[in-house]
């Protein structure tokens, strides 16, 4: 039976009910995020109040293809013990930014096995509603298939999702991570959940401390069948937003995307997903403690790989804007100590910027780059030079002048010439000095995380 329009129950509390204010807030979140030009098929986003999780959610919503016409939203049953999944046959979902129509697939979906229409499961449920204004901001004309997911057989539900997936659709899994743990405990628990997702471990995620584990398990099975890639874009918890770290909730932004076959081969990564999350958190905690107290951060337990002597850089950004970047090309200490030292230097000693103030901390994003040892590269032609440096980190040296670019700097250049001209300029050389390649030393290196 048709239920008319689903009212926006949380507008004015969890997010603004004023359309202009709401639109401005969402756009401010999105403006801080880089568009990665991925063929996104599904995203995992949080569903807390926007002041807590809006910025993290924006990392994933920014990546959705603007040609998307159908969004399958997987919500959580917070206030109802739901077996199976639930869809209410509304005409529209309302929001301060206008109404969004439901897909014609709703009626057929309701006829599927273990799918029910239970109004009590939807009453005062926020997990689907809170994603609607973001979708209205990043998409044009679209419709939604909103599904509240309870305890269900994830393999069967995965096949059901695939049945309703089209070339112009995307899946939005509305999921928070761990709830109400102490800050450091939450970081470890969430790292495990994120690692399960990044490794398509549907068995592990069903046992993880996460909203809608069965929905995510089904998504992982689907992604594995479709041969999608997965990427973590952001992780935070509520303790990163407010000062209370005694009881926090975890948030992640994760995208699943399709790649061309020629791009599918990638090098094995030295660090696990949990170790990579831990590295970023060490850098973040080190920067924040130094800015707030002037003291050095310390942990008593950390991954054994962090005891190895490895070079690293810590990059700090406000949105897409660089705020500090410090590191070493050669190892000078254990990776653990280098992460702490470089994070402190990035927020306080980068000569290009003024020191970071305490009020800025909540706006900062952190990136850790662990480097392989530089290797001398002796090109015998310009073509060999171009081929040998593409996608690599590069050090150039001539006389007393030198400069370095990390591998990720390539994303700002369309060709090798532009990359080399900029690097020469950074070194204080003539911009075309790279053409005299036999008079210059080149060292190449890669990221190992």
Description of the molecule:
By secondary structure, the protein is an alpha/beta fold. The chain folds into three domains: 5-263, 3-Layer(aba) Sandwich (Protocatechuate 4,5-dioxygenase, Chain B); 273-371, Hypothetical protein ph0010, domain 1 (Glycoprotein, Type 4 Pilin), CATH 3.30.700; 375-445, Hypothetical protein ph0010, domain 2 (Dna Ligase, domain 1), CATH 3.30.1490. It is 32% helix and 23% strand. The protein has helices at 19-31, 50-61, 105-110, 119-122, 132-138, 154-164, 183-198, 202-206, 213-226, 273-293, 335-348, 382-389, 416-426, and strands at 5-6, 39-45, 70-76, 85-86, 92-93, 100-101, 115-116, 143-149, 169-174, 179-181, 229-237, 248-258, 311-318, 321-327, 364-371, 375-377, 393-398, 401-405, 441-445. The longest helix is centred in the middle third of the chain and has 21 residues, at 273-293. The protein is globular and about 75 Å long.
The CATH topology of the largest domain corresponds to Protocatechuate 4,5-dioxygenase, Chain B
Report the helical percentage. Answer: 25-40%
How widely separated are the two ends? 52 Å
What integer is the average pLDDT?
Answer: 92
CATH class of the largest domain: Alpha Beta
Largest sheet: 9 strands, mixed
**CATH structural architecture of the largest domain:** 3-Layer(aba) Sandwich
The number of distinct helices, counting runs of at least 4 residues, comes to 13
Radius of gyration: 24 Å
- Which structural category do the helix and sheet elements fall into? alpha/beta
Query: Total number of β-strand segments?
Result: 19
Silhouette? globular
Show unreliable segments. 261-268
Taken together, the total number of domains comes to 3
**Percent of residues in beta strands?**
15-25%
Spell out the CATH superfamily of the largest domain: LigB-like
């Amino acid at each position: 039976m048709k239920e008319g329009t689903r009212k926006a129950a949380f507008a004015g509390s969890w997010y603004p009910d004023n359309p202009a204010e709401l639109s401005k807030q969402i756009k401010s979140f999105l403006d801080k995020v880089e568009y990665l030009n991925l063929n996104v098929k599904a995203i995992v986003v949080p569903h807390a109040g926007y002041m807590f999780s809006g910025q993290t959610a924006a990392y994933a919503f920014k990546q959705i293809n603007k040609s998307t016409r159908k969004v399958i939203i997987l919500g959580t049953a917070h206030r109802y013990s739901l077996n199976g999944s639930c869809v209410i046959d509304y005409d529209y979902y309302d929001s301060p930014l206008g109404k969004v129509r439901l897909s014609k697939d709703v009626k057929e979906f309701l006829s599927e096995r273990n799918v029910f229409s239970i109004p009590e499961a939807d009453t005062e449920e926020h997990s689907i509603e809170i994603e609607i204004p973001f979708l209205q901001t990043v998409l044009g004309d679209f419709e939604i298939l909103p599904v509240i997911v309870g305890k269900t057989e994830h393999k069967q539900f995965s096949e059901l999702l695939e049945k309703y997936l089209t070339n112009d659709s995307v899946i939005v899994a509305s999921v928070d991570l761990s709830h109400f743990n102490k800050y450091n405990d939450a970081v470890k628990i969430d790292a495990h959940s994120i690692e399960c997702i990044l490794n398509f471990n549907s068995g592990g995620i069903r046992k993880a401390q996460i909203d809608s584990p069965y929905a995510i398990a089904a998504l992982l099975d689907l992604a594995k069948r479709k041969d999608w890639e997965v990427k973590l874009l952001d992780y935070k918890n509520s303790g990163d937003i407010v000062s209370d770290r005694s009881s926090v909730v975890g948030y992640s932004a994760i995208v699943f995307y399709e790649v061309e076959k020629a791009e599918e081969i990638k090098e094995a990564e030295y660090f696990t997903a949990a170790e990579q999350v831990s590295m970023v958190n060490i850098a973040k905690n080190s920067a924040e403690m130094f800015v707030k107290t002037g003291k050095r951060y310390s942990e008593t337990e950390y991954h054994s790989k962090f005891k190895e002597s490895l070079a690293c850089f810590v990059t700090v950004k406000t949105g897409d804007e660089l705020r500090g970047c410090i590191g070493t090309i050669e190892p000078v200490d254990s990776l653990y100590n280098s992460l702490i030292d470089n994070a402190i230097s990035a927020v306080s000693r980068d000569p290009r910027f003024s020191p970071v103030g305490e009020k800025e901390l909540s706006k900062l994003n952190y990136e850790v780059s662990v480097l392989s040892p530089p290797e001398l590269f002796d090109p015998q032609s310009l073509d060999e030079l171009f081929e040998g440096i593409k996608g690599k980190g590069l050090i150039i040296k001539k006389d007393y002048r030198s400069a370095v670019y990390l591998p990720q700097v390539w994303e700002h250049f369309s060709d090798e010439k532009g990359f080399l001209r900029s690097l020469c300029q950074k070194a204080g050389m003539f911009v075309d000095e790279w053409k005299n390649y036999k008079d210059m030393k080149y060292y190449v290196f890669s990221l190992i995380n």
